[in-house]
Structures are given as C-alpha cells and as structure tokens.
Amino acid sequence: MQYLEGRKYVVQAIFLVVAMVFGARLFYIQVLDGSYKLAADRNTLQRIVQTPYRGLIYDRNHKLLVQNTPVYDLMVVPREVKRLDTARFCQVMQMTVEEVREGLKTAKTFSRVKASPLVQNLSTPELAAIQDNLIDFPGFSIQARMARAYETQNLAHTLGYVGTITPALMENPKYAKYQPNEFLGRSGLESFYEQQLMGRRGVKYRMVNVRGIEKGAFRGGEFDTLSVAGQDLHTSIDIDLQQYGEMLMAGKRGSVVALDPKTGEILAAVSAPAYDPAVLTGKGMGNRYMDLLNQKERPLYNRPLGAPQPPGSVFKLVNELVALQMGTVSPATGFPCNWSLVRCTHRHEYPSNVSIAIKNSCNPYFYQVMRTAVMRGRSRNAREDVRLGLAEWRRQVMSFGLGDKLGVDMGSETKGRIPKPEFYDKLYGHHGWNFRTIYSLSIGQGEMGVTTMQMANVLATIANRGYYYTPHFVRGIGNGGPLPEYQQRHHTTVAPQHFEEIIPGMQQVVDGRGGTGNYASLAQFGISMAGKTGTVQNPHGADHATFAAFAPVEDPKIAIAVFIENAGFGGNSAAPLASLMIEKYLRGKVVRKKWEEWLPGSADRFVKHH
Amino acid sequence: MPSSPARYSRSIDWITVGIYFLMVFLGWLNVYAASYSPDAPSNAFSLSFSELMQFNWFKQILWIGTAVVLIVVLVVIDYKAYDTFAFGLYGGMILLLLITLVIARPIAGSRSWLELGPVRLQPAEFAKFTTALAVSRFMASTNLRHQSWRDHLVLAGLTLLPPLLIIASNETGQALVFGAFLLAYFREGMSPLILIVLAAAGAILILALLIPKLWLVGAFTVMLGVVFLFNSRVMRHHLPLALSVWGIVVGMVFGVDFFFNNVLQPHQRKRIEVLINPSADPLGVGWNVTQSKIAIGSGGLVGKGFLEGTQTKFDFVPEQSTDFIFCTVGEEWGWVGSSVVIVLFMTLLARVLYVAERQKSVFGRTYGYCVASIIFFHFAVNIGMTIGLAPVVGIPLPFFSYGGSSLWSFTTLLFILLAIDAYRKQDLVR
Questions:
Q1: pLDDT at B1
Q2: Which of A102-111, A117-126, B20-29 shows the lowest mean pLDDT across its residues?
Q3: In chain B, what's the furthest Cα-to-Cα distance?
Q4: Which of A39, A133, A547, B109 has the lowest tally of Cβ within 10 angstroms?
C-alpha cells in the first residue's frame, strides 16, 4: 500500500495547476487587458454634455441682431405610453385625434424605445399650459433647448444659420467633439466663428445602474466641468445701412459692399435676392432650406464674396495706377481715342490727360496705358515681351487684393481671377498669343474675375492712398478686439502720390460736367465723392451695371462697390444706388426720395431698349 | 470522549480552524459589499430586526452564528459516531432527497429547496458530507485494491445515487460535484486510467467544438502514425488496441454533436456555447459571463476598494452575493485580493490533505480526501465560471458565497474531519 502514498503529490499537483491557471488568467484580465475597465465605464458611466449658451451677435451700434430663445419639444417614447386617455390628451395638448395618431405612428417607426419629438418648437406659454398635466401621461416628456432668434430680417447671408451637424461634417477633425444631431453654425459668421460662439461644453458624469437609473455623481463630481457660454460677436455691420441696401436691391440680382477704409470693417454686405434669416430656424426649416436651394434666383448664394465677375471700367483705375507706378505713363500723358483699337463708350473730348480719360471712361486710352505697361521691350520677341510684361503687371495688380482670397472672416469667399501668362499659354500655346489677345483686361473685361468685396476693397485702398486692411465683419469678439490678422495694413506696390494723381479724375466722374457718374453726386450736401462707373459686357444678356466710390475725398469714411446684374449702364442704376447708401451712412438719413422710390424693383427698367 | 477539555483543544487542528474563520470573515465582508446599497440608511442600528432581515449581509451574520454552534456540536459528538452512523446518515439523506423531490415547490426551475417557515434548505448540500462519510466507511470496510466486482458496483451505487436524485430535482450543478469523489478514490488505489480517459474525453469534447472536426481527426491520426513509426515493434503487438482507440476517438469527435444536441438540455448547451464564445448569447447566459468578467477585469491590480465596486453594486453582475461572489472580490480587491483568496484556498486544501494523510485509519484518510476534493471542485468550477474558464454551473464558492445551506454544509464537511482528526491517536487501538 505504501506506493499509493505517492499519489498525494498527483492530487496536490492538480490543485496547484488549477490555482496557477486562475492566477495567470486573473492577471491577464485584471492587469494586462484594459478593455474590461473601459467596458465597466461604458456600463455605469453616463456622460451628460451640457451645451453652452451660444454667443450673441450685435451690429456696430450695439444693436442686437441674433439671440437665443428657449424652445420646447414634446417628446414621446412609444413603448412607455400606457393607457393613454386620448380625449384628455387632445384637450390638454390642443391637438386633434388625427394629429396625435399620426404623430405616434411616426414616432413608432423611428423607435419604440427612444424619445422622438411629437410636437416641436413649443413656445413658453404653450409649454406652461401642458406642463402640469404631463405627469398624467407616462411616456411623454418635454425637452428644452436653445434655438436662434433673429432681431433683424436682413443680413441673412452674412449671419448664416445654425443647424444640426451632418454626417459629412462629422468626418471633419475640426468637429471631432460634436455629437450626432448636435447644432452648429452651418454657414456665414455662425460657421466661421463657431468656436468662439459655441463656448465650452460642460460635462457631467453620472453613474447609472443596470436599469439606467441614476445613482449619483461619479467620484463626487470630480471630473465634471461647467459649461462656459460662447463669446458675443460685435460685427462692424451698420444694420440700418444693411437694411437700406437690401431694400434698394429688392427685385434685382447683385451685390453691394460698403467698407470703412480706415479699418477694413464691412459696413454692409448686400446679396440680392435676400431672404429672412428666421426662415432657416425652427419647425420645417429643412423644407424651407430646400425651397431656397431650388429657386432659380439662387437666394442662398452669397454673391458679394462668392460671385466673381469681370469688373468692367472700374478696373481702369487699377490699370492706370500700375502704369503710373511703372513710370510708363504720367498723369499728363494723352492718348487718342482711337476707335480702331477698341470701341469707346461714347464720343467725347480728346483725353489729353488721365482725369479726362477717367471722367469719360475712354476705352482706347486705357488700352494704350496697359500696352505701355506690359510691352516694355524686355525681349526682342514681342510675344515674349507681352508674357514677361503681363507677369509683372499681374504681380502689381494682385497687390490690390485681387486674384486671391482676401481673407475675409467668411468661409464662402472665392479667389476671383487675374490671369497668368501660363493661362493664355494653355489656351493658345506658348507664344501663341500677343497683346491683342489680352487687351480686354485693360478695361476690366475678358478672362478677369473680381468679387464685389474685392472691388470695394480696391476703392478703400484708393481712399487710403495705397494700403488696405483686410475686410472683416467682426470688430470685437467677447470683450476683445477683432482677430489679429485684421489689424495689419497691406500696402500695394503703388506709391501714395500716384493715388493722388487719379483721384481728381474720379471726382470728375461724379461731379464734373458730363461725368459718367453724375447721378451719384452728393455736391448738394457738400460731400465730395470719388467714383468710377462700369458697364460689364455680358454674353448672356443685358450688360451688368457697376459703380464704385469713396467719400468724402479728403477724409474717406466709406468705400462702396455696387454690382447689379443686367441693369445696363452703370451710371443709371449702380451710381445712384451707391450714392443713396453713402448719403444714408454719412448723413444718417436720405432726403432724395425720388431716387429712393425709383431704384427698388426689377433691373429691366434701367436698360434702354432699342 | 476527551479525557479533559485542555487535551482536547490541543488535538484540534487550529491552523485549519484559523483558515476557516478567516475565509468566512472575508466572505462576509464581500457579501456585505455586494449587498451594500449607498441609498440605504447608513445607520444599521436604527433598523428593526425585520428590516435588517432584508439584507443578505445581516442574514449571513445569523448563518455564521449558527455555524459556530454547529461546530461546537460537531466536535463534541463522539468521533466514533461518524463512523458508526455513516450509513444511517446516508440513508436519511437519501430519504430527505426523495421527500424534497415530492414536496418541493419549484424555485428558479429546480425542485431542490425545502421550506421550513422562513428558512430554506437545500438537502443537496448535505448529500455531500453524508455521501463522503458513507463511501469512506465502505472504503474502510473493504480494500479497494482487492474489492470484488460486487464491491465496485456498491461503491459506484453509493456515489451515483445522490447525484441522480439531485439531477431529478433539476440541480445539475450540485450533482456534478460528486465527480470530485474520483480524486479520493484515486488516492485509495483507483486506476489512474479512469482519470486520464475522463480528462481526454473532456479535452476531445472541447476541441471538437473549437476546431473543425476533420482537422482534429487528421491531427490525431498523424499523431498515432508517428507513435507507430517510432515504436513499430511494440505497436504491432497492440494493433487491435491502437485501432480501437483511434475508432473511439473518431467516434467521440463526431458524436459530440449528437451529445451536444440530443443529450444536453438547451440551457446546458447554451452554457457551453457561451464558454467558447461569450457573444453567442449576449443578453442571456452570455450576459452573466461578460458582466462577470467585466467586473473582475475592471478591478485592476489592487481593486477599486471596499464598497467601491460599481459593476456589482449597480446590479450588472447577476447572483452577485451567491454564485458570483468572486466578482466582488475581483472588482474591489483587484488581482492582489483575488490572489489572496486563491492562496487561502490552496493553503486550506494543502492543510486538509496534510490532515488526511496523517490519519491512521482508511476511513479518516478517505474522508479527508473527499473533503479536499469537494472543496476543490467548488473552487475550480465557481471561480472558473466567473472568469470564463468553466461553463456557468450554479454552485457556490465555499465559505464565501452567501447562504445558510452552503455555509452549514461546508462547515459540517470540514469540522467532521477535524473531529475525527482530534482523536486520531486513540485510533491506534483499532
């Protein structure tokens, strides 16, 4: 029997092996594998995000433009609805039996266990009427949230709108912290300043048991953070001027931009046709958005920043300034109004100096100005000479903020185009083109694209005699100033004295006898104005009317550019419109009621039908 | 009877007693933590008795108190009584199981609980020590090595009758415990082949569920072929044997499905499926296993601290103070605490084996081995199921799990051994 005693070791070994396997397995799941800790947190920790109060938006005179308002959604969890007294429910909720049935059916198709809205956007008084009765209806609850409310019916394109985050936006690392269905700025300032307006989310960690019942704060709230309200935006918009501009542009397509040249602040940015910002908020917003999107006139299009067009004759100013800087012309240079080079606008006196040329907007004059600037004999080959000349000319033109994004605080900005030599190489082949190919650029036509914002900025640059501040909508964030990039001067390549040399001609446009922009004159109020008309040829229909100006000449307070599609000669519509805006801004009121009554309405009336 | 109390106390194995009380105390702490609710009134002294009786931790105090009384009774009884009345107790237990089967109301699908007023007892718990006494007695009266076939049959009958009755009452888990007796029989001379064959059968069953059957058969055939090549002379003599082993294994591999689908009940089948893949039944049995692993796994190295466990406290783990009490240990005391519990069990088992080996009688030694084997089986299956290494079988963790029946049963099991041990010197006369 003695040999059997050895078997005790076998039994001990079996015990020991099992114990060691357990020890090792426990070490693996408790110490090495972290996934169980995460799973435990997922089980018990509920993360409740508190959306902060969104920042408000003001105009330059501290008028409130956008604020928040509480709205309430009546939510229903279909599975929890028990013994619903439909008659009483209808009476309390002010709904018909059909509405309730339909609503419950829709909610059920969404989810039986998750809350979905039965009635959205209840106002506070409506809520008060039903709140006390809610306890009698299990499965129904109220969910409060903040929605945007607008104190203005204007400025919709600039303000933008707030909507739920889309799956596409969720992919963007910028929005990594956003939860599905969370609201955010979807366009305009709401989108550009999302981070500042949003504020900082508060997070509460709550522990819940297996049935989802709250069991108190996690570690006494050690990890909870309070939400920080978003910062208010103080825009540079003068909402009265903005509203006035939108009224004048009613019935037309086009844009108006008014700047304060001294700061680059945008006073007004009109995009026509416009819409009421309140349209893109509240119940049925999605449908209304689709309506706007599908309209032929494209009201959602932010034209001042997003619609580059050939600038027309206004560009002659830039052309002249670049040539003056290059020294290929002087203010006293005269060129014949030679119609064989290019057709002129009308018969006029001999352009013996730059002022007469500007006043009459003489096309052949500026054709010849550009030719001197571009063809400087850098190469024996005339075509190579134009290539080299165009490249240098383009560099100087772009120093006015043309052909590239200005850096406006708006996501929808486009670059426009000042064509490169390579652009024509591609079209016609290397050395396959000459000055005759590109001469349209001299009068702001052809392959050139400039936005109304860029055009207004050119006028602000002329008003400042050589520099500009990047145009911007927001002059103050919270208690601070604008973003730092808006406090830097950008100098053009053109010396200040050359600006002085063209301004008298621009004044002649408005106040000189026979000037193209005489309708814009504010001489009766003692306000001096420098401007330039433009009429942009349009292969698809009537010419586009433009006018750009600044005033007062000696101490510029406003620079403006107006672009009206298919309104014909710039002097007839765009010039008086700009003039009214300047009058409104500088004098605070408008006395020239005749113009004010004539301008609103369709653009057709300004076009002479032959 | 002891000649004097002092001599008697000297002969009691105080080390085992110490480990026992340490385990019962730690068990109570964890039952308290598992049934503790932060919402409940903090001052237990302000509660009335009937209010206190709602708490498992309070009732466990009563069970521990009665267990102490039980211990005194067990060691005061003449040690010879256990030997003498072994068969009588066994008969009484069988009768009790039969009565239970007839009169018990089904509770959670099993007819295994006897209700005596407010107290509920599970007779299956007491079948363990009575059966252990009976088979030890039988082992002592015959010699296993020289037993006749009839003796073998009687022993098998003694061992199998209680589990069959328990299975009839739908408590399969408690019935499986009786497999533990094989370890004791092994020590007393049973052929190791039985253990090996059983282990191999278990391994084949698991492997057949885990890997494709043809691979398994292929691998086994190749293995056998290799053995044949290197021992061709010996193997040729045993060719029929080798072929029949091959046949049996292949038959088992392909029989697994039949066994699985036709012999096991649906809930048992599910428990094995879940062991292999916890996501097979994520909201049913898989839920238990997954949540149990999450609770233990989230404990980390040193645990979340006493009463700080969230998974157990917020009811994510089912049966948290009874069968899944180890989750509280793992979550609140971490790997260190879990290891302490495992080491405690190993120490207890080592001590019990030591005590068993020093018995002069076959009766005492066999009984000691039965005690160690039963405790070990519970330990292995219970902790194994909480960490996903064993199927979910509803048996308690000795001394830790909440419950009077299991505490009394394990206390009786252990202290009868200590009572016998205390008189081992007097056994010399026999």
A1: 44
A2: A117-126
A3: 82
A4: B109
* Residues B326-353, mean pLDDT to the nearest whole number: 96
Higher-pLDDT residue of B369 and B268 is B369
Look-up: residue for tokens 């050359």? A498
Q: What are the extents of the domains in chain B?
A: 5-189+278-429, 201-263
| Separation of CA B262 from chain center | 26
Q: Residues B357-362: what's their mean pLDDT?
A: 90
Contact B293 A21 (CB under 8 A): no
Residue B429 confidence (pLDDT): 42
**Residue B239 φ/ψ, nearest 5 degrees:** -55, -45
3-state secondary structure chain B: CCCCHHHHHHHCCHHHHHHHHHHHHHHHHHHHHHHCCCCCCCCHHHCCHHHHCCCHHHHHHHHHHHHHHHHHHHHHCCHHHHHHCHHHHHHHHHHHHHHHHHHCCCECCECCCEEECCEEECHHHHHHHHHHHHHHHHHHHCCHHHCCHHHHHHHHHHHHHHHHHHHHCCCHHHHHHHHHHHHHHHHCCCCHHHHHHHHHHHHHHHHHHHCCHHHHHHHHHHHHHHHHHHCHHHHHHCHHHHHHHHHHHHHHHHHHHHHHHHHCCHHHHHHHHHHHCHHHCCCCHHHHHHHHHHHHHCCCCCCCCCCCCHHHHCCCCCCCCCCCHHHHHHHHHHHHHHHHHHHHHHHHHHHHHHHHHCCCCHHHHHHHHHHHHHHHHHHHHHHHHHCCCCCCCCCCCCCCCCCHHHHHHHHHHHHHHHHHHHCHHHHHHC
List the single best residue of A22, A27, A207 to mutate versus B (max B Cβ within 10 A).
Answer: A22
- Average pLDDT over every residue of A176-192: 87
pLDDT of amino acid B234: 72
Q: Is the pLDDT of residue A205 over 90?
A: no
Report how far residue B253's alpha carbon sits from residue B391's, in angstroms, rounded to the nearest whole number. Answer: 20
pLDDT over threshold 90, residue A458: yes
- For residue A294, the surrounding DSSP H or E stretch is helix A285-294
| Cα gap A410→A158, rounded to integer Å | 8
B355/A contact by beta carbon, under 8 A: no
**The residue type at A440:** S
- Mark yes or no for CB contact A19/B342 under 8 Å: yes
Residue A338 has pLDDT above 60, yes or no: yes
B386 touches chain A (CB under 8 A): no
- Predicted pLDDT at B430: 41
How far, in whole angstroms, is CA A12 from its chain's centroid?
80
**Domains annotated on chain A, with CATH:** 48-77+117-128+139-235 (3.90.1310.10), 239-296+306-606 (3.40.710.10)
Computed from CA positions of residues A229, A231, A234, A235, in that sequence, does the dihedral angle turn out positive or negative? negative
Q: Mean pLDDT throughout A351-375?
A: 94
Cα pseudo-dihedral B414, B417, B421, B427, rounded to 10:
170
Across the range A524-553, mean pLDDT stands at 93
B315 touches A at CB < 8 Å = yes
In this structure, of A471-480, B24-33, B221-230, the range with the lowest mean pLDDT score is B221-230
Query: Least CA distance to A39: which residue of chain B?
Result: B294
Q: Tell me phi and psi for residue A530, to 5 degrees.
A: -115, 130
Q: What are φ and ψ of residue A471, in 5° steps? A: -60, 140
Judged against a pLDDT cut of 80, whether residue A123 lies above it is answered with: no
B313: which chain A residues are within 8 Å (Cβ-Cβ)? 209
Cα B24 to Cα B41: distance, rounded to the nearest angstrom: 25
Out of A78-87, A229-238, B390-399, the most confident range is A229-238
- Residue B145 pLDDT more than 70? no
Among A11, A37, A205, A213, which would you mutate to test the B interface (most chain B Cβ atoms within 10 Å of its Cβ)? A11
Is the pLDDT confidence value at A210 over 80?
no
